[in-house]
TrEMBL record, chain A:
Residues 130-411 form the NADH:quinone oxidoreductase/Mrp antiporter transmembrane domain. It comes from the Bacteria. InterPro entries: NADHpl_OxRdtase_5_subgr, ND/Mrp_TM, NU5C-like, Proton_antipo_N. The chain crosses the membrane at residues 6-23, 30-54, 74-101, 113-130, 136-155, 176-194, 206-224, 245-263, 275-298, 305-331, 337-356, 368-389, 409-429, 450-474, 494-517, 621-640. GO terms for molecular function: NADH dehydrogenase (ubiquinone) activity; NADH dehydrogenase activity. One of its GO terms (biological process) is electron transport coupled proton transport. GO terms for cellular component: endomembrane system; membrane. This is NADH-quinone oxidoreductase subunit L. It comes from Candidatus Segetimicrobium genomatis. PANTHER family: NADH-UBIQUINONE OXIDOREDUCTASE CHAIN 5 (PTHR42829).
From TrEMBL, chain B:
It comes from the Bacteria. It is found in: Endomembrane system; Membrane. GO terms for cellular component: endomembrane system; membrane. It is a multi-pass membrane protein. This is NADH-quinone oxidoreductase subunit M. The chain crosses the membrane at residues 6-23, 30-49, 69-95, 107-125, 131-148, 160-180, 200-218, 239-257, 269-292, 299-322, 342-360, 381-409, 415-438, 459-477. Residues 124-430 form the NADH:quinone oxidoreductase/Mrp antiporter transmembrane domain. It comes from Candidatus Segetimicrobium genomatis. Belongs to the complex I subunit 4 family.
Length: 642, 497
């Protein structure tokens, strides 16, 4: 089946066009077509995953264009990393598609939603299958487009319209660096195939600072897409999109593309002198992990809590990759996809019931929405990193790698882990415990089409981490499947696992003290920690910083240039025009008085002479004879005097 | 066949002159038939065209033998796509102009005359003929803007005419310099390329280069010769804008590739960095100024300045690499990108001007970007097409614009790395500019002022859908077009040694 892997992105792509043009006339108003296409892709992905597990590899290329006499190839490849990503995207994607049938029910643009979702799935799968930078970049930009379309799906809301644009432009800044990185690689290596680039790294024809530069530039794209500092600002605003979109694109799959990119091109980062490029990745990741987690504490919008959580978790993945924990980073990508999709969909279920995103309006929902409550609790425990749930295994591995690699990074990660457990249980306690605070809401459990995907995802979140557990005899199966030869992971350490569990437990306990048992009221905390609270509430002033330092200056410069264009350049053109008009007036004066004057003068002279000479012509023969006689005399005199 | 393609529109135009002006259906029918015939023939020619076969469909006849002037036509991989593009855009524009009421007969005649001129420019291989066709395009455009234009039409028309006329004169002088230095004196462009008459005369070569430069740069338009463009676009009728942006601007870049590069490679190489810097200014400046526009047509016009900057960056890079064998691939890549961008920009910007026209001509009668809002909910078809065109213009992979930009950047990065880095920032600005425009027109709460606005009708769909389809097809699989271009550009680069 490896030879037909190209069908995986093609099926949803066809579904996109079919739904776009046939829309409501399709079964389920297009939803069934979308689910069917992605479901088939999912089955195919599962088969491929099985084949790859037993050593199957495949690669196919075709010539896409000629540049001079040099062909530019495109193609796809299937290897363990790709197979895992295909599995995650199709399985999580299918569940979210099914959930959307319930969540988007009755939306005026219902078929359009499924069309966009299908296009997104196709682009993401294309990105994952690419065996070269060109196709990867194409998929990369297309998922960005889908993200744009879906964030702005309810575009009548100005906030959604603004958020969609912010997302696209911010990530494009990252893509700018990535594109430069691709240009640099192509310039040095002469090919965009991953194989060729990595071979050049191996042979040393791409090395030294140039390699570091290329790797860091490529990482720029990942920073944009995976919402790392300093380009993370778009992701929280992206929550304006419908919740399934947040789950699929802005939590489980697309934002992980940045992590995937680093993993895919790990050879570049790894071979950069002194792992410099990886150090950059690790520090950006570590800082993002902690910073975003702290902001998550003060958010009252349930989706925004999860959004900052996503940024933070993506930071963990980057941290893992950066501290040579290749397997750990990719593993966390996979587990996170499941439990974060679960959390978002559960949040969606809550929003669906409450018609609000504000957790301070909620409370006591555990009784009314038991399925949502239990599944969200599973997601929360997985996120917090409590064994045996999925997040524990991967996060523990990342922290372990960080501990062995660089202590500063470990402390960043450990502090982040505490905060993570704190904010997610703050959210759960606010939402599900106590009593309902809103007086207008009438919460109810969501329909089965929504709860079943929740249950399936919860099951995954419960057990998927076990594939990366240190089993007796077989060891860490995930590590065996996906690993980077040169970067061997640190072995599992039971005491360390106990420590990371303790950190998570402490976070949960702290949250319970404040928000469940209310031994310390949150208002007191806010008062005591007022300066810190101000920083967090303003999200470290990133948005304000960009508004002042980037957005306004660019708009200002654009307006100044427009003025310059109208008055200076066009002014000069018009001035030349005016000068010529003026010159022609001058010529006219010259013409009128000098040239024409001279002509007139000649005429006037002739006329005057004529007037005078007129008197000579008298008509009398005597006068003429007299003149003749005088003439003869004059001639005679001249003749004689000679 | 080439003559037939070029002159069929003119024949149609002359027949129109002898038709009663009250019979509007017949007039339109003749115009449509003539441009359709020309387009179909150009497709037929494409089918017969042999990739990599150099100049084909040659036609050579004596015209004024005493001066060495011939009637000499031919197409290669550079001119073929542009000829088909011209025929296509003309056809779509005639279809779009169906509702013109004012002096229809003259309008159609001028339009067909213009088409003949443009097709001739791209097919002429004799400088004298080239110049004549070049000038023929000027006059109908002048009248199209001056008679069927907007409120400031006279100013715009005169500005357009005088500006380009200055360029034409410079070109004429440069042509004469070439002519008198060739032995024997000839206007034959192919012979001039072979002979390189100015190779040993750097001063004359520089003069000729700047002569051609002025003419072509005004036409492109390159920064800082661009200010005629926004005025001309804003005032021109929709079909005029389409032709102006889609084809007339390409005459400038075509000139650079057809004339400056192969005939004056030495001079061009020396001045290529200067040209590249001007191109770069066009890219960044064009995008930023476009961002500050509130008039939709002006916005698209400045985005043209930006995109033609990309083309010129590609051409200048290739010129700078001329004669350096190890940079031949980069040069060919940059040129491929540049020529592809010519076609892509023709298709995309042609579509964008039609799109503006759809909104302005028969519906809202305003082009203020800020006056709309929320149209996306009411005009789904129109919104979809606009999004496709704008995304193509901002270089989204999978659409035509990306392929062009990708090759230009890949090629020029090997030659002018630092300039290219700055040029790539243009991609961010164009993205911001178009998305902001989409946001202000189509997104947000619906502006009730436009409650009665209908979606696109059949005629508008006929003129826009083919362009959108082209954007997608060549964006996904550019090879059919790119192979044609690549063969010609590889030959060109190999020739310039």
């Amino acid at each position: 089946m490896l030879q037909v892997a190209w069908l995986i992105p093609l099926l949803p792509f066809i579904a996109f066009w079919v739904i776009l043009f046939r829309g409501r006339r399709l079964p389920g108003e297009g939803a069934y077509v979308a689910i069917g296409a992605l479901g088939l892709s999912g089955l195919l992905s599962l088969v491929i995953l099985g084949q790859v597990m037993f050593g199957g590899r495949y690669q196919a290329t075709m010539v896409w264009a000629m540049m001079g006499d040099r062909p530019l190839a495109v193609g796809y490849a299937v290897d363990p990393l790709t197979a895992v990503m295909l599995f995650v995207v199709t399985v999580v994607g299918s569940l979210i598609f099914i959930y959307s049938v319930g969540y988007m029910h009755g939306d005026p643009r219902y078929p359009r939603f499924f069309a966009y979702l299908s296009l997104f799935a196709a682009s993401m799968l294309l990105l994952v299958l690419a065996n070269n930078f060109l196709v990867l970049y194409a998929g990369w930009e297309l998922v960005g487009l889908c993200s744009y379309l879906l964030i702005g799906f309810w575009f009548e809301r100005p906030a959604a319209a603004r958020a969609s644009m912010k997302a696209f432009v911010t990530t494009r800044v990252g893509d700018f660096f990535m594109f430069l990185g691709i240009l640099l690689l192509f310039f040095t290596v002469g090919s965009l195939q991953f194989d060729a680039v990595f071979a050049a790294v191996q042979t040393g024809s791409l090395a030294g600072p140039l390699l570091t530069l290329a790797a860091v530039l490529i990482f720029g794209g990942a920073v944009g897409k995976s919402a790392q500092i300093p380009l993370h600002v778009w992701l929280p605003d992206a929550m304006e999109g419908p919740t399934p979109v947040s789950a699929l694109i802005h939590a489980a799959t697309m934002v992980a593309a940045g992590v995937y990119l680093v993993a895919r091109t790990y050879a570049l980062f790894f071979s950069s002198p002194d792992h410099l490029a990886l150090t950059v990745v690790a520090y950006i990741g570590g800082l993002t992990a902690l910073m975003a987690a702290t902001i998550g504490i003060v958010q009252d919008d349930i989706k925004r809590v999860l959004a900052y959580s996503t940024i933070s978790q993506l930071g963990y993945m980057m941290l893992g990759l950066g501290v040579l924990g290749y397997t750990a980073g990719v593993f966390h990508l996979m587990t996170h996809a499941f439990f974060k999709a679960l959390l978002f969909l559960a949040a969606g279920s809550v929003i669906h019931a409450m018609n609000t995103n504000d957790i301070k309006e909620m409370g006591g929902l555990a009784k009314v929405m038991p399925v949502t409550y239990v599944t969200m609790l599973v997601g929360g425990l997985a996120l917090a990193g409590v064994p045996p749930f999925a997040g524990f295994w991967s996060k523990d591995e990342i922290l372990l790698e960080a501990y062995h690699h660089d202590r500063t990074l470990f402390y960043l990660g450990a502090a982040g882990a505490f905060v993570t457990a704190f904010y997610v249980f703050r959210m759960i306690f606010y939402t599900f415990t106590g009593s309902l605070r809103s007086h207008t809401a009438h919460p109810h459990e969501s329909p089965q089409v929504m709860t079943v995907p929740l249950i399936v995802l919860a099951a995954f979140s419960g057990v998927i981490g076990l594939v990366g557990a240190p089993w007796p005899l077989v060891g860490n199966m995930f590590h065996r499947f996906v690993h980077f030869e040169a970067a061997e992971g640190a072995p599992f350490d039971l005491r360390f696992a106990a420590l990371s569990t303790a950190i998570a437990g402490a976070g949960i306990l702290a949250a319970a003290v404040v928000y469940r048992w209310q031994l310390v009221s949150s208002a007191t905390l806010r008062r005591v920690l007022a300066p810190a609270y101000a920083v967090l509430v303003h999200k470290y002033w990133w948005d304000e910083f960009y508004a002042v330092s980037v957005v306004r200056p660019v708009v200002w410069v654009a307006q100044q240039l427009r003025t310059f264009d109208v008055y200076a350049i066009d002014g000069a053109v018009n001035a030349i025009g005016v000068v010529f008009v003026w010159l022609s007036r001058l010529y006219r004066v010259f013409d009128l008085y000098v040239v024409d004057g001279a002509v007139n003068l000649v005429g006037w002279l002739a006329k005057a002479a004529g007037g005078r000479l007129r008197h000579v012509q008298t008509g009398r023969a005597q006068n003429y004879l007299l003149v003749i006689a005088l003439g003869v005399i004059v001639l005679a005199v001249i003749g004689l005097t000679r | 066949m080439l003559s037939l393609i070029i002159f069929l529109p003119l024949v149609g135009g002359i027949i129109i002159l002898f038709t009663s002006k009250t019979n509007e259906t017949l007039l339109k029918g003749i115009a449509l038939g003539a441009s359709l015939a020309s387009f179909v023939l150009s497709l037929f020619m494409t089918a017969l065209f042999k990739i990599g076969g150099g100049f084909q469909f040659l036609e050579l006849g004596n015209w004024i033998p005493s001066l060495g002037i011939h009637y000499h036509l031919g197409v290669d991989g550079l001119s073929l796509p542009l000829i088909v593009l011209t025929a296509l855009l003309s056809l779509l524009s005639v279809a779009y102009s169906w509702r013109i009421e004012l002096r229809l007969k003259e309008y159609l005649f001028l339009f067909l005359l213009l088409e003949t001129g443009m097709l001739g420019v791209f097919a002429a291989l004799d400088f004298f003929l080239f110049y004549i066709f070049w000038e023929i395009t000027l006059v109908p455009m002048y009248f199209l803007i001056g008679i069927w234009g907007g409120p400031r039409k006279e100013y715009a028309a005169i500005k357009f005419f005088l500006y380009t006329l200055v360029g034409s004169l410079a070109m004429l002088l440069a042509i004469l310099v070439m002519y008198f230095n060739a032995q024997p004196h000839t206007f034959n462009m192919l012979t001039l390329i072979e002979q390189q008459p100015l190779a040993a005369k750097p001063v004359l070569a520089a003069l000729a280069f700047w002569g051609f430069f002025l003419s072509f740069a005004i036409k492109v338009p390159m920064w800082p010769f661009h200010t005629w463009l926004p005025d001309a676009h804003v005032e021109a009728p929709t079909a005029g804008s389409v032709i102006l942006a889609g084809v007339l601007l390409k005459m400038g870049t075509y000139g650079f590739v057809r004339v400056s590069l192969p005939m004056l490679p030495e001079a061009f190489r020396i001045y290529a960095p200067a040209v590249a810097v001007l191109a770069l200014l066009g890219i960044v400046y064009g995008a930023l100024v476009a961002m500050a526009q509130t008039d939709l047509k002006k916005l698209v016009a400045y985005s043209s300045v930006n995109h033609m900057g990309y083309v010129m960056l590609g051409v200048a890079s290739a010129a700078a690499a001329a004669g350096i064998p190890e940079k031949a691939v980069a040069a060919a890549t940059a040129l491929n990108g540049a020529v592809f961008e010519m076609v892509a920009h023709g298709v995309i910007t042609g579509a964008l001007f039609l799109i503006v026209g759809v909104l302005y001509d028969f519906r809202a009668h305003t082009r203020g970007v800020d006056e709309f809002g929320g149209l996306g909910a009411r005009l789904p078809m129109y919104t979809g097409i606009t999004m496709v065109a704008m995304l193509a213009s901002l270089g989204l992979p999978g659409l035509m614009g990306f392929v062009a930009e990708f090759f230009i950047f890949v090629g020029s990065f090997g030659i002018f790395p630092y300039l290219t880095v700055v040029a790539v920032t243009g991609v961010i600005f164009t993205a911001a500019m178009f998305l902001w425009t989409i946001q202000r027109i189509f997104l947000g709460p619906f502006n009730e002022r436009w409650a009665g606005l209908p979606d696109m009708d059949t005629r508008e769909k006929i003129s826009l859908v083919p362009l959108a389809v082209l954007m997608v097809i060549f964006g996904l699989y550019p090879r059919p077009l790119l192979d044609v271009i690549n063969a010609a550009m590889t030959t060109l680069v190999a020739m310039v040694r």
